[in-house]
């Protein structure tokens, strides 16, 4: 089908979302799209996603050189610009008109659940109103909660960021336990605890942090928290806790006490000067125990830390972009690209599809079998290990023999 390609990026970025974008452009140009003589069509990019497209703001992506494409794949942020605009029913006629005006026949949208809902609505509307456009979703979210995938591009890099941060901050907290007895680290994860759970992969010894991981799938009680704090401090002298931002108390109230929602009716944790799960848990522990402690809220940093990205993640994100173009040119539409793990004895994946109609309305929390109260099962670490790459090995001076006491001197 002759016509132009349009690609956009929506929602929060990941460390590898631009690798997916580069994969789309690369595959499109290899298939004959571009601005040269005899090209099949142009490769255009939405500036600031669907909101920018409604303003007719687009970029000519096919003008990128090979060297620029290589650098694009390694660039943090969402290079095209993103948005969190909820497409309204009254916007759909304009979207269809603009697609026809610019002769766009292939539509690729990189994002999470809300993004998949947007492209599903656009392709459905166009089908119902006589304009043929092949729309394919390319998965992206650090939350790892998209339906029908083994894991989502962006998650492995964010998981690596979280695990390294908790591991390194844990060593600081351990060494400063005479000053601060506890540390609380918050992770992204509105409804799913995949990122919070990932902190466990950096733990190599029993006394290492994190000692406890609280996730949205498992409500916690105040009594449980105080028991956990006492247990770890009695055993190690300090305690490291990781909490997902959407974790709730057993009575159903958010630990964060958040109530502000975005346009998609998603709770915005810590928005508009509000509180957060880590801050509130820190206040609770300090008030109940009298201990001094710290809390850490990295917010968007796991989404943008290109220096900590996973090589596996970068390669798979690019491959998803390439696969989306390949399937669109074969005539597929109304689907999202999926990553399916196939290796039993070694890590391997293949790429498939899932209907946008299912992806847009379903999320994927952590399965109960991967969790235990306040922590994770070894099976989760087996799942995560090939995704995040190698971790540094540190020296522990506490393993050295202690100097014997001088006889007759009381320590």
Describe the structure.
The chain has 411 residues and is of the alpha/beta class. It folds into two domains: 4-153 and 307-359, Rossmann fold (3-Layer(aba) Sandwich), CATH 3.40.50.450; 158-303 and 366-387, Phosphofructokinase domain (Rossmann fold, 3-Layer(aba) Sandwich), CATH 3.40.50. The protein is 36% helix and 16% strand. The protein contains 13 helices and 13 strands. It has helices spanning 17-30, 49-54, 66-73, 92-101, 113-128, 155-175, 194-198, 222-236, 277-289, 301-304, 311-329, 356-359, 378-388, and strands at residues 4-9, 43-46, 58-60, 104-111, 134-139, 182-187, 212-214, 239-244, 293-296, 335-341, 349-355, 371-372, 375-376. The strands form three sheets. Strands 3-2-1-4-5-10-11 form a seven-stranded mixed beta sheet, sandwiched between helices. It has a four-stranded parallel beta sheet with strand order 7-8-6-9, with helices on both faces. It has a two-stranded antiparallel sheet with strand order 12-13. Helix 1 runs antiparallel to helix 3 (66-73), helix 4 (92-101) packs across helix 5 and helix 8 (222-236) packs across helix 9 (277-289).
């Amino acid at each position: 089908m002759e016509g132009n390609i349009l690609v956009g990026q929506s929602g929060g970025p990941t460390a590898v979302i631009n690798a997916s974008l580069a994969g789309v452009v690369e595959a499109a140009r290899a298939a004959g799209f571009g601005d040269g003589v005899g090209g099949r069509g142009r490769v255009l990019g939405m500036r600031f996603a669907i909101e920018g497209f409604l303003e007719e703001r687009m970029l000519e992506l096919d003008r990128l050189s090979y060297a620029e494409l290589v650098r694009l794949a390694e660039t943090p942020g969402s290079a095209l610009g993103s948005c969190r605009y909820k497409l309204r029913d009254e916007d759909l006629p304009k979207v269809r008109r603009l697609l026809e005006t610019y002769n766009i026949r292939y539509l690729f949208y990189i994002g999470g659940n809300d993004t998949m809902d947007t492209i599903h609505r656009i392709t459905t509307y166009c089908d119902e109103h006589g304009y043929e456009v092949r729309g394919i979703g390319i998965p992206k979210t650090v939350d790892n909660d998209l339906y029908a995938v083994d894991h989502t591009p962006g998650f492995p890099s964010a998981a690596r960021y979280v695990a390294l941060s908790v591991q390194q901050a844990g060593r600081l907290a351990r060494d400063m336990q005479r000053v601060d007895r506890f540390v609380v680290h918050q992770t992204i994860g509105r409804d799913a605890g995949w990122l919070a759970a990932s902190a466990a992969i950096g733990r190599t010894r029993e006394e290492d942090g994190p000692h406890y991981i609280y996730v949205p799938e498992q409500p916690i009680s105040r009594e449980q928290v105080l028991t956990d704090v006492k247990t770890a401090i009695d055993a190690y002298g300090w305690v490291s806790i990781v909490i997902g931002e959407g974790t709730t108390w057993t009575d159903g109230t958010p630990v964060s006490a958040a109530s502000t929602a975005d346009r998609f009716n998603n709770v915005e944790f810590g928005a508009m000067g509000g509180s957060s799960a880590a801050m509130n848990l820190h206040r609770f522990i300090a008030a109940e125990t009298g201990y001094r402690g710290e809390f850490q809220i990295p917010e968007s940093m796991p989404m943008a830390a290109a220096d900590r990205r996973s090589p596996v993640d970068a390669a798979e994100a690019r491959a998803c972009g390439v696969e989306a173009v390949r399937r669109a040119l074969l005539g597929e539409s109304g689907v999202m690209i999926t990553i399916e793990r196939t290796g039993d004895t070694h890590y391997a994946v293949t790429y498939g599809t899932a209907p946008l109609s299912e992806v847009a309305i379903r999320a994927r929390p952590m399965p109960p079998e991967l969790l235990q109260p306040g922590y994770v099962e070894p099976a989760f670490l087996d799942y995560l290990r090939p995704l995040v790459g190698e971790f540094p090995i540190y020296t522990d001076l506490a393993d050295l023999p202690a100097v014997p006491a001088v006889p007759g001197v009381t320590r």
